[in-house]
Amino acid sequence: MTRVVSVFLPRWSIDRHRRASGGATRPGSAPLVLAGSDGRRRIVMAADDAAQRQGLRSGMPLAKAQVVVPGLRIEEADPAGDIDALERLAFWALRYSPVVAADALDGIILDIDGAAHLVGGDEGLARDLYERLGAAGYTCQIGIADTWGAAHALARFGPDPISLVKRIPPERVLAPMPIAALRLEAALVAELRSLGFEQVADLLSQPRAPLTLRFGPQIWRRIDQALGLVPEPIDPVRPADMIEVRRAFAEPIGAAETIKRYIAQLVEQLCSRLEERGQGARRLDLVCHRVDAQQQSVRIGTAVPTRDRKRLVRMLSDKVTEIEPSFGIELMALAATWTQAMEPTQNLSSLIDPSAPDVSDLVDILANRVGEDRLYRVAPVPSDVPERSVERIPALSPDQESVWSGSWPRPARLLARPEPIETVALLPDHPPAFFTWRGV
């Protein structure tokens, strides 16, 4: 089952301007709008929260906005810069999925099928994405559903900052939402509202033929896409320097053993390309394009850069069960979406001392089965607070400067619930000489 994440950025232009100007709005500052030209008119392109609270909206004539809000702060909009920045954000989001694209002018879309388990599942991925964007200063809302259209609607009209639906038919999700959730043109939405259509449920209850005859195929095409009745493939962004190899098939393939055989061929080609650049793979994305225009993708990650063909083939082959070929796969693409330089390392310090064991293969297998966030080790941290005396670090991260103490000057862990102890002191008001806990 495909899982799609839609990220809605309702203040994208304003947030970008605020970041470029040095941070948050100072208390008492005038409301801000970004202005642009629409033909010969000057209009409001975006408004911050303070301006919107006073009734300013995108598309309003700038002269009217200045009358409504005296002392209004006006800056020039940068729509081309907004588009470029949104594309860069889509490239950044490739850390979560191999299939990412811009969604209109105010969001991005991700197909996380086969990749979400690496960051804690759907909820873990959405939470991490939400927190990272928030920390960067961007207001966002996230929707997760089985189709692009449903996820898009949830992100923009869902009840929570993160709206996630599972095992709920798309029609039930869409029915109570306004018709603007269907990604229809603004003029068409206005015309439908003038006829009394407010919610998607109002359209679902109508016969198809009259609406199609009057308004064309757009309404039902969008409805069918949102319901999953018509495929809507995502055209993903791809970095120009990314290493990618492809294999197209004259006849569609679907058998697991056949898929594994071609995985081995693609890995061989990819590793040869990596070797030419002196790089190793840290993350590989396998995207299978089906004959029904749908995509199936799987992702693997490695703890250290590697060009070990056998290891990569084994890790990808373990994921074949997650691929649903349906009527067949017509093209397979394997991309190294994260690479690092591979430098020669010395395995032996002498001819006598044994080499350090290489556990990276084991770490990779476990991480790709249970998720990278669930595989870690702990390192000591100087702190008087027991809960902060250790921290989680990646399983194969370099050794820390701090070392584990042989004798702890203070407790390193607190019990979930307090438990009574009996103490004995040699003299009143002296520290305890010993104590008894749980009879010991």
UniProtKB/TrEMBL annotation:
Its EC number is 2.7.7.7. One of its GO terms (biological process) is DNA repair. Keywords: DNA damage. InterPro entries: DNA/RNA_pol_sf, DNA_pol_Y-fam_little_finger, SulA_CellDiv_inhibitor, UmuC. It comes from the Bacteria. GO terms for molecular function: damaged DNA binding. SUPFAM superfamilies: DNA/RNA polymerases. Transmembrane segments: none annotated. It catalyses: DNA(n) + a 2'-deoxyribonucleoside 5'-triphosphate = DNA(n+1) + diphosphate. Its cofactor is Mg(2+). Residues 245-334 form the DNA polymerase Y-family little finger domain. Residues 30-152 form the UmuC domain. The keyword Chloroplast does not apply. Monomer. Poorly processive, error-prone DNA polymerase involved in untargeted mutagenesis. Copies undamaged DNA at stalled replication forks, which arise in vivo from mismatched or misaligned primer ends. These misaligned primers can be extended by PolIV. Exhibits no 3'-5' exonuclease (proofreading) activity. May be involved in translesional synthesis, in conjunction with the beta clamp from PolIII. PANTHER family: BLR3025 PROTEIN, BLR3025 PROTEIN-RELATED. This is DNA-directed DNA polymerase. It comes from Aquibium carbonis.
